[in-house]
Amino acid sequence: MNGTLTYQIHQLRMIIMALKLKSIRLKNWKCYQNEEIEFNLDTQQQIWIVFGQNGFGKTSILEAIQWCLYGGDELKSSALLDSFNRIVLKKDPNLELSVQLKFERNGDIYDISRTAKRAVRGTTASAQTNEAIVQKNGINQGDSRERIEELLPRSCKDFFFFDGVEIKRYAQRLHTKDTLDAIERILGIPELRNLREDAERALRLIEKKLKDAASINESLNQVTIELEVVQEDIEIKKEQFQRAKEEYQAAIEICKDAEERASQIEELRDKLKDMNNLESKKLRKQEDWSEAKMQVETDLKQAPIPLLLEFVRGLAEDMQSTTMITARRSGSVAQLREILESEACVCGRCIDESSRQYILQELQRLETIGASRTKDALQQDDLRDRLVTLSRFQPPNFDSLLLRRDRLRDELDEIEQAAYRLKKETQGLNQEEAQEIWKKVGEAKQIVREKQEKIERFKRDIDGLLQQENDLRREMEELASGNEETANLARQVTLADGLHQAAKELIEWRITERKKTIEEQTSKIHRSVTNKPEEYVGVEIREDYTLGIKNANGEILNPETLSAGEKEALAFAFIAGLNLQSGTAAPLIMDTPFGHLDTDHQKNLINALPDIPSQVIVLATDRDFPDYLLQGVRPHIAGILKIRRLDATEDASTLEVAE
User: Fold this and answer.
1) Strand-strand pairing, 161-163 and 588-591
2) Cα distance between residue 437 and residue 429, in whole Å
3) What are the pLDDT digits (tens) for 620-634?
4) Cα–Cα distances in angstroms (integers) from residue 516 to residues 357, 471, 513, in the given order
5) Which tens digit of pLDDT belongs to each residue from 400-457?
6) Do 116 and 63 touch, CB atoms closer than 8 A?
7) Helix segments in 481-563, DSSP class H
């Protein structure tokens, strides 16, 4: 935390009356047979850590404190029966258990103890809780419940004793009336309201006396009647004004919800467009992938060709030779015809009949052979051409083809996955609502403006009535001055009214001032514990003490949109801020608060513990305090205790000081 907050905390520590837990004595309470836990208060350090594994008895300590202070309301009868130590119970079925707490505040010692008796009748067991006994400096105090309420009000206990698993509920959007009462109790608002109500009762009593005394003065009586009517009108208008404010806040919430829904729908519509684009892209990618796949399959069918190329080339050459022989044979036929038709042989002599007959026989033989082979020759020529073409085959690059096919398949898978996610995200999109949503937003904003205008009208009406009330009071004082009794009562009315108005203004100022201060403190603490200090710049505390987070853009975020860790960081900051402003600074006893958080939140929350201006007792597992975090906060630790199991087969534990 920054230096300003540290200084403020130091100043608060100097002026508040801190209540500190000095010791806890447990007898026959759950896993503790006879155990005393002492907290040394003669130290500047305020953090105590009680380590224990799950099931060893950490939560039992917190439950014992709450039961001792608030009794049977904190523990149902059936649960109380389970609170008796089972080991001792075997020896004594009619067992008594007790819890004793010792607190110190401003030098005074407060002992609070409570007992319960278990009784068995036949086969039925019952448990009876006795009223708590409260001693101050060794002297019994009457009305123990009232004394405990003064120390640790029941309505405030959840802000000082809490289960870390449930801490996030303090950051919820709505608070119950009990929670609101508890917060205002911490801030001392009920006492101020009592002052206002007392002043109002006194004012009404004196006004009645004045009215009775003024009955003999017609003019004064008339003014008091008019004043009474105006005051009734003021009360009516104030009630209407308050309802209008509540309606205005409700309208703002409705408008925010509509805007959030509109934003969600717009986001869904954008996603729907993205999904449609992905579907088109998917079809194109499927075509590319199918083409690449077919190319690979085609080339794989031709894969043996490179192995046969030499054979193909040889065969093509052989067929080429055959073609040449056929061509030569055709040439021989042509030559023989030319010789046969010539008058003389190639040697220059005339062809005799025997030569002619021989040539005719050869010609006939060659023509017969050629005629029988013409069809085969044509087929062989075609085959030869195809083999020549095949001999020029270029082997494909299979690595490149397979890589392209697989890359297209991966891209197609990514598109299909993205489309599936968008389909799930847009599943709840209502097209009719999408068309109407901005109309609803506009209507909600119009209602907000109308409610605001209504508030302004009521405010003007109230201001006018208050002015009438002041005028009538001055007139009443003038008329009452003629009689000593009425003059005295008129002055008392004026004083009582001034006190009443001052009490109302004090309450408004106190609430505004406390909320502003808590908001500042909570914002500073939150920035120190959040894992997004650049994104979250402050905390807003509304009139009903619900929370919002202001981001760097000035928008107020709903806590319900935060992650579990972010909610707990916000809740922790709010509780610490309340503690700073409570004027009580009761011990903060936290049961297993950090182990389920992410690393950043866990680290930030642990490092913020030394800045809490009260005693802090953390019931933790080893996972809650990793060694590196424990060492960092160790200079601020007053003591470390460890729960040890006495017997693995029995429900028995003890505490010892850790080394």
Assistant:
1) parallel
2) 12
3) 888 888 888 888 899
4) 136, 35, 5
5) 878 888 888 888 888 888 777 767 766 666 666 667 777 888 888 899 999 999 999 9
6) no
7) 484-529
In 39-177, the DSSP E strands lie at: 47-51, 96-105, 108-121, 124-129, 133-136, 139-140, 161-163
pLDDT at residue 596 above 80? no
- β-strands 32-38, 616-620 pairing: unpaired
Of 633 and 375, the structure prediction assigns the larger pLDDT to: 633
C-alpha distances (whole Å) from 209 to each of 212, 416, 479, 493 are: 5, 85, 16, 10
What's the pLDDT score for residue 317? Answer: 61
Copy the structure tokens of residue 298: 């085609």
Distance of CA 23 to the CA centre of its chain: 37
Residues 278-307, mean pLDDT to the nearest whole number: 75
What pLDDT shows up at residue 282?
80
Tokens for 262, please give them: 């509109």
Question: To the nearest 10°, the Cα dihedral for 453, 459, 465, 466?
Answer: -170
Helix (H) or strand (E) holding 643: strand 637-645
Which residue, among 204, 190, 189, has the nearest Cα to 500 in the 3D structure? 204
Residue 407 CA to residue 551 CA, distance in Å, equals: 42
Residue 113 has pLDDT above 90, yes or no: yes
CA angle 47, 52, 53 (to 5 degrees): 145
| Cβ neighbours of 318 (radius 10 Å) | 12
Q: How far apart are the first and last CA of the chain?
A: 30
Task: Evaluate if residue 26 carries a pLDDT over 90.
Answer: yes
**CA atoms 355, 357, 358, 363: torsion sign:** positive
User: pLDDT, tens digit, for every residue of 441-456?
Assistant: 888 889 999 999 999 9
Q: Which two tokens stand for residue 97?
A: 């258990």
Tokens of 369: 């052979």
pTM beyond 0.70: the answer is: no
* Assigned token pair, 302: 């031709």
Q: Which two tokens mark 411? A: 């891209």
Residue labelled with tokens 């030394």: 610
The whole-angstrom separation of Cα 331 and Cα 95 is: 133
H-assigned helices in 152-217: 177-186, 189-213
Q: Which residues pair with 505 in a beta bridge?
A: none
CB 629 within 8 A of CB 10: no
Distances (CA, A) of 181 to 161, 462, 586: 17, 28, 17
Position 51: which residue type? F
What distance in Å separates the CA atoms of residue 322 and residue 324, rounded to the nearest whole number?
Answer: 5
Q: How confident is the model at residue 104 (pLDDT cuts 50, 70, 90)?
A: very high
To which H or E segment does residue 23 belong?
strand 19-29
